[in-house]
Every structure is written in C-alpha cells, then in structure tokens.
C-alpha cells in the first residue's frame, strides 16, 4: 500500500484487497484511516525516517486495523518513506502482514525464509553472516562447499574461522573484518589467498549489520571467486605484450631495411628518429647483412633522419667502424649542409668514411668501385 503524508491512498494491490476487503477502485484517492480505521505511521515517524532511498532501509510499526466488514486485525507495517528531490516526504510505501493469527504469521515468515534461502543457496558467490564475536550464524551452500574439507552448512554455525580454515588465512580474514566493523561501513576489495588448490583470487564485499536501534550486531559478507578472470586477464596481458613485441620487431625491420643494390653493394635508408634501441637494431641489421651477402660497400643514407645530434652521430660512426672491421667500405649519404655543420661542430671523426650529399651520388660511387 502507498499513501501520501495526508493519508490519500495512491497504490492498493491485490494483497491489500484480500486483507482489508476494499478493491483498488474503491481505495484509491481515499484516506487510509477511513478505509482501515487506523493511521499506522504517525507524522512523527515519517519525520524520523531519514534514510536515503538508495539504501533501501525499512522501519516497522504495528497497529490494529479493521476490514471493510468491520473485523479487527493486528497488522505489522514494514514501511519506507519516499522523498522527492528536495527531501520532502511524498509517499509512504508499506508491506502489510496480518499478525492476528500466530500460526499464519509463522507460515508467512517461514515461507519468506525458504524463498530467501533458495535465493542465496543458488548463488555462486559465498554468502555468510557472523555475529559480533565472529561466529557464523548463516552461510550458504556454496560457502560450505568451498571449505578446505567440504561441510554441511550446519557444521559452520557457531564456529569461528580459526576452527574451519588454515591459521594464516583465518587471521588475515579476521583482521580485515575488524577493519570493516571499526569503520562501520561497506568495504569492497580483492583478496588473494594461498589454498590447497593454489593461489585463489576473490572479490569481497563485507559490511556491518545493525539492529533497529543502529547498534552493530554482526557482519555480512559476499565473496566471489575471480581466479579464472584474473588468469584470463594475465594471459591476455601476456599475449598483448607478445603482440606488441612482434609489432615492434616488425617496425624495427621496416625502419632499418637493408636493400641489396648490386653484387657486394647494400644500402640502408634511415628515416625518423634514432634512439638507443634503434641504433642497436641498425648495427645488428647492417652487420648481419654484410656478412650474409659478402658486401664490400655499405651505404647509410640519413636523408630522412630528422635531426643529427651527438647521440645520432655516435651511433652512425660506431656502426661504420664495426662495418669497417668486416672489411666493408662505408658510404654516408644524405649529408645536408646543416648536417655537415653539425658534424663539424660536434667534432665527429669521419675518417675512413665517404660522405656524399645524396643517395643517388652514393649509389653511383658504389657502382664505380664495384666495377673495378
């Protein structure tokens, strides 16, 4: 049943009709007190209910009421006050139970308990409740089955973790639960626990439980194993690293191509920026190509190199010296006026290295020597 603070009924379902005898058409728009001869939630109780809607909290009240035929009932109202954006109460929503018949009340409570039990027992997550002393008062089937030695749920009730789990695990869990109780709020975190089945990962939600007066009475927990998820993520990360490494290797090969121009003549056009990693790749590719092709002349073309500084100059000269040790003549092409000035300013030793302004002139130079 829903009604406004002034008592006007705004929602009346089939259950309300069965309990009080009024149909929805007869009840909507009328004052609740006129229908059931009771005002179950007082204005003071409405003002006192100050729980945000998102928390889904309830309060409870009991009152006498009457049916359409005048029969007396004793009802329990489990209600929430719904507020608008300004915080003003605009409706009271209640679940109403007839508590006049004790046996019927017990059947209702038992039926709801069975529904709740089936709900949590069919959950794959571990769900449990502990009292303020850390003893289990409830656990679902999945949690009992996940114990080091599979148990019936009843074997957990009244016990501490120290009696069911390995000491190291129990101490870690209890320390975290003390933190939850001390903070008085919901905590979400991941745990990695070493078990007989190896290292298992869990996503855990733990929260303090309170009575109607707000006093702490225990702790609830919902724990979901995410080991397979974490392993899959690790495998994806490893695969991604392999793909990135392969891509980088492919890019390095593309960025340091070795082109055979003629018998005994190879050329390597360089483009972009030369860092430490690429400098090593240039030297490795060039020396490997010289060896495999028996090259007597190697052309290093730096026309596409963005800037020539000390680092680049050192990389080029080291590569040229290494090639010379293999008996290969090195020709450096693409030496623009500003590059020549930089090399002179840096005092780079280019003795034994032929330098030319363009790749075309370098190829022509190499071909002349090849014909001799």
From TrEMBL:
Residues 187-238 form the PAC domain. InterPro entries: Bact_StressResp_Reg, PAS, PAS-assoc_C, PAS-like_dom_sf, PAS_4, STAS_dom, STAS_dom_sf. Keywords: Coiled coil, Phosphoprotein. Residues 1-39 form the PAS domain. Pfam families: PAS_4, STAS. It comes from Sorangium cellulosum. Residues 255-366 form the STAS domain. This is Anti-anti-sigma factor. Signal peptide: none annotated. SUPFAM superfamilies: PYP-like sensor domain (PAS domain) (SSF55785), SpoIIaa-like (SSF52091). Residues 222-249 form a coiled coil.
